[in-house]
DNA sequence: ACATATTTGCAATTATGTTGCAAATTTTAT
DNA sequence: ATAAAATTTGCAACATAATTGCAAATATGT
């Protein structure tokens, strides 16, 4: 089980360390996206704040996780399920933030629609975040 | 000229103060969205940091400005040009962030397209941010 | 002009993020 | 299996961003 995680690290030319295994494991078992603070709480004292920052940064650079721009401007991370390569992300899917439980979820199958921009604007990348109630929380 | 700004404050049941006039004026003359830091710089020492935070918060609650969720998770604010009411925003337009000059621009005429969500998800609000080059910066 | 209500600025505190460096751990070569 | 080289970690210090309580200052309604 954690063999798969080790392999993922090796495949991306990263040293296999406790912190990395632990953090990656969290992502694999998390119901949604994770913020730095979430990881810090779950790891409670076992991993240094700084190590978490650095690990998240490395994971992002390697294309293992991607950041999610949420409406409240908090930084969240989630696993890249598409094929992301080092330094290049293909996470062009819509993200959903539940207003009740707060979970942030990648809607991997819903891709961000194109929009027609005014004259002169040259688009490069689009992000879309939808707020509302997730399937567990709608009443 | 600043009469209009005063009226806007009065219309929203807010006291008319120097800080508020100054900050609102900045928004009316800014080329794009403003971050807390931008306002702090422009007001250089005349307005306390804390006052800026509180003013922005109040303006947002009153529906005068709205926050923009950018990809780099920095908080920016822009005037609500649509009719926003107290505690309820209708800023359903696309935002554009220029990768060169950094300007954040409200594309008031481009509204966020609807997307089809998986079963069970109940959308409430959608946000879309496009990165790229603005009309001034494309080469 | 005065009493009341609101807003401001200061100080203190908390949260968030970064950097340098020595110690610990992992990897590589033998 | 072991030692050297490379990488990663944790600590301390620092920088920035944001929040809160409270007294002084300012604005509003009569």
From TrEMBL, chains A, B:
Keyword DNA-binding: yes
GO biological process, one term: regulation of secondary metabolite biosynthetic process
Source taxonomy: Bacteria, Pseudomonadati, Bacteroidota, Chitinophagia, Chitinophagales
CDD domains named in the record: Fur_like
GO molecular function, one term: DNA-binding transcription factor activity
Pfam family, one: FUR
Cofactor requirement: Zn(2+); Mn(2+); Fe(2+)
Binding-site list for Fe cation: 89, 91
Keyword annotations from UniProtKB, A to Z: DNA-binding, Iron, Metal-binding, Repressor, Transcription, Transcription regulation, Zinc
Source organism, top-level taxon: Bacteria
Organism: Lacibacter luteus
Family according to the record: Belongs to the Fur family.
Positions contributing to Zn(2+) binding: 98, 101, 134, 137
Name under which the protein is recorded: Transcriptional repressor
Presence of the UniProt keyword Repressor in the record: yes
InterPro entries cross-referenced by the UniProt entry: FUR, Fur_C, WH-like_DNA-bd_sf, WH_DNA-bd_sf
Cofactor-binding details, from the entry: Binds 1 zinc ion per subunit.
Coiled coil: none
């Amino acid at each position: 089980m954690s063999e798969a995680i080790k392999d993922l690290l090796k495949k991306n030319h990263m040293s296999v360390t406790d912190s990395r295994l632990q953090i990656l494991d969290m992502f694999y078992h998390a119901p949604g996206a994770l913020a730095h603070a979430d990881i810090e709480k779950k790891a409670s004292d076992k991993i240094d704040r700084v190590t978490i920052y650095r690990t998240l940064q490395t994971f992002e650079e390697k294309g293992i996780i991607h950041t999610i721009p949420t409406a409240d401007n908090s930084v969240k991370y989630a696993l890249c399920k598409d094929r992301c390569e080092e330094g290049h992300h293909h996470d062009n899917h819509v993200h959903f933030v539940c207003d009740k439980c707060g979970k942030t979820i990648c809607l991997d199958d819903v891709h961000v629609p194109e929009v027609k921009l005014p004259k002169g604007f040259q688009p490069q990348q689009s992000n879309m975040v939808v707020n509302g109630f997730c399937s567990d929380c709608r009443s």
